[in-house]
Design brief:
The modification Pyruvic acid (Ser) is found at residue 25. With 127 residues, this protein is mostly beta strands. It has two helices and nine strands. β8 (104-108) and β9 (114-118) form a beta hairpin.
């Protein structure tokens, strides 16, 4: 049996662009993708801490070191520049893989630079 677990998370990212006329997806600084192990075209879930919007899309690489977090296409209607978002990717794991699974979580600052890397989330933690 496979179970679905979070394997990567960009926490407290800030939207830098919203491009309604792009075909779709979310553009993410390639350094941030690498830090948490999200691959280009991988399915991601994006939640908006300002308005509660929650979408699923796929990641595309943005310029390294740019800090870009750009919602493209229809998603741009639910995310505004400056909104704080959480970007998560999931993996389907076997029971054997679950025993050793360690998600990668990057907590970002206001400029989308990595402030802290976490290997676990502790209940009731406020960052």
């Amino acid at each position: 049996m496979l179970r679905t677990f979070m394997h990567a998370k960009l926490h407290k990212a800030r939207v830098t662009e919203a491009n309604l006329h792009y075909v779709g997806s979310i553009t993410i600084d390639e350094d941030l993708l690498d830090a948490v192990g999200i691959l280009e075209n991988e399915k991601v879930q994006v939640t908006n801490n300002q308005n509660g919007a929650r979408i699923e899309t796929y990641a595309i690489k943005g310029a390294r070191g740019s800090g870009v977090i750009c919602l493209n296409g229809a998603a741009a209607r639910h995310f505004q520049i400056g909104d704080e978002v959480i970007i998560m990717a999931y993996a389907q794991l076997t029971n054997e893989e679950i025993a050793t699974h360690v998600p990668k979580v990057a907590v970002l600052d206001q400029e989308n630079s990595i402030k802290q890397m976490l290997s676990q989330e502790i209940a009731h933690t406020i960052l």
